[in-house]
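User: I'm writing a tutorial on reading structure tokens. Could you give me a worked example: one chain, its sequence, then its tokens, then a sentence or two explaining what the tokens reveal?
Assistant: Sure. Here is the example chain.
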Amino acid sequence: MQALVKKTAIGLVIVLFAVKGISQTDTTGAATLTLKQCVDRALSNNIPVKQTGLLADAAKADWQQAKANLLPDVNGSWGYGWNQGRAIDPFTNTYINQQFASSNVGVNAGITLFSGLQLQNLIKQTGYAYRASEMEWQQSKDKLTLDVILAYLTILNNEDTWRIMSEQMEVTRRQVERMEILVEKGVNGSYLLSDLKGQMASDEINTITAYNALQTAILQLSQLMNIPYNKNIQLERISEGTLLEVYPATAEQVYASSLENLAQVKAVDLRAKSAAKSLSVAKSGYYPSLRLNGSLNSNYSSVSSSLSPTTVTEVETGDYITINNIKNPVLTQQQNYAPQKISYNTQMKNNVGTYVGLSLNIPIFNNLRVTTNVKKAKLNSRYAAYEAEQTKVVLKQNIEKSHQDMISAYEKYKALLEQVNQYKESFRSAEIRFNLGTIVSTEYLITKNNYDRARLNLTQTWYEYIFRTRILDFYQGKLSL
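And here are its predicted structure tokens:
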């Protein structure tokens, strides 16, 4: 029996030491974290939230590209090569059979004048998709914020539970010490001491269980913030002594507000609009497309040359003049020329050519691709519309349940508040009578356990109600920290 008391006392000292440590400032220098600081750390460290943000950035790039499709496209080209054998001289455009080098340079431009409003509808479609991605990013941040709030409140709740359990164990320990003295003096029977020691062991188990639940909650919050686990983490307390008031908004008011402010609702509505615009994009395949094109080109050939005048010589024309019956040939002067290579830059300047034209593409038959695309776009549009409708149905059901849970928690809180006041007075009276020896330990323990359970239930219900109100705030898009 003495060994059991000693073992229990050691466990009590350890638990009380831990309780004292958690109620004071961390001596290792760890600062006390506020709820806002926890949320900020989670948002900055959470990888899924960052990934959702990247998806929003990618959707923005698609939207910007859709707008850029209205601009003309301009491309330049340059080439240089060597030919061997029979080929077309790019300078004279005649066939030659020799080795030569050639080069070409050009600038081509074009702009779509009409494509069945495909480009305009694509801008709207990608714009809706980008805004939907932003709302989904916001939704992921709101969801993470709500999870952090729940974990934060769970830690505070478990801290209070652990504190109450430790206080209960301390009360039982003092009664065990008092009863040991009375049993040694022969005033009370040893069975009374056994009852109290059994209760003390039960209190110790409950305290250890509460401590383990606290550490589990701390681990969960650390994982949400993506920081190393620290069992001595310090959180700023909220004023749990404040009397609660019923949530001011009805379920209908919360739902109406959620339709206007909740990022999740905005996201599915924007997705539905994007899918509807994708149908317009698909239908543009039925219409002709008109495009304006233009180009500026020049070329060079290594065999191209120009003739430069050199000397003048006299040559026979084939005609004769008879003088004194003698045929004298008729001579004429002939200008002689020498070939001279034309430089690369000169040819490029001299061979410039331009082109401007319109091209009209009229779809006649394309293996039913456009028809199939339109059918799929219609199905996707209907699916997105159903998705938005279903989201709102589920949202309304969740709001109604959350509001009812909030009402239940509030009514339970009021009842427990009165119960704690009554059990507190009952326990105070029972402790006085037990110390005077007018009641047995069984009656005392029953009264004590009733008071302890009522205190725990009141604390847990208080935090439950606070969390229920945060959920309703979340649905209205106004989470408060």
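What the tokens reveal: The beta strands are 73-83, 86-88, 95-97, 100-114, 289-301, 305-323, 326-341, 353-361. The radius of gyration is 46 Å.
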